Amino acid sequence: MSALIDSHCHIDFPQFDADRESILGRCRQKGMSAILVPGVSRSQWARMSATLDQFNDAERFPRLLPAYGLHPCFMGEHEIDHLTNLETQLDTGAVAVGEIGLDTFHGEATYDAQVKLFKAQLAIAAERSLPVIIHSRKTQDQVIKLIRDQGFKSGGIMHAFSGSLQQAQQAVEQGFLIGFGGAATYDRANRLRRILKALPREAIVFETDAPDIPPCFDREHPNSPLNLFRIVEILAEVREDPVEDLLACSTKNVLELLNIAV
Ligand SMILES: [Zn+2]
Questions:
Q1: Residues 6+ away with beta carbon under 8 Å from 119
Q2: Domain ranges across the chain
Q3: Of 43, 228, 249, 258, which shows the fewest CB atoms inside 10 Å?
Q4: What is the pTM of this model?
């Protein structure tokens, strides 16, 4: 079995304080080689980075790969000089800028400020040739347009993708991978499953977004990266694709995007 990568998991969040070590140990034993851990705000980066250092042991745990960014759902916390702080933080060994993007799920009050922040962070990523981890809710067209208008070429991941097939294909054309996880395990997720089936393997990566987006087989608990093994089995079945081939390809996709080996 190839090694599995969780391409989006908030393993640093306090929800995991009690059992982080046991979860990460079991992930490693089951064959997870790496977890991409996205940043959300300046105050969270330092805590996140300290947690990742604590579990920096490739024998016992998956490799924890940090991304740093200013998340559009935390607009109340961000200040303009946090962009300068972001540049310094990226120099500590980030594999990507994220998560960044646009979100109008709770209304449009902060939309203009979100756009400004997103553009600035795309520019920072471009300067460093780093890929981006995109968070987009109800804003897929705007996100693609900004990426295109800005001539952003370092690619990235459309995390927890929730757009249309056409939007997914436009993202792939711009050098992006499409992130699938717990949401597509539900039978009722017809549109998402159609997209999962229509895309080539080379465009697909897997993620839990833990502790969010619990899969259909464990809705009662916070989501965990341990669930990714079963999530991938279910999504391989949906695609009628051999699980080993799909898993191996998704791992290769992540490693190529991040330009690393694990
Ligand atoms: Zn996230």
A1: 146, 150
A2: 4-258
A3: 43
A4: 0.97
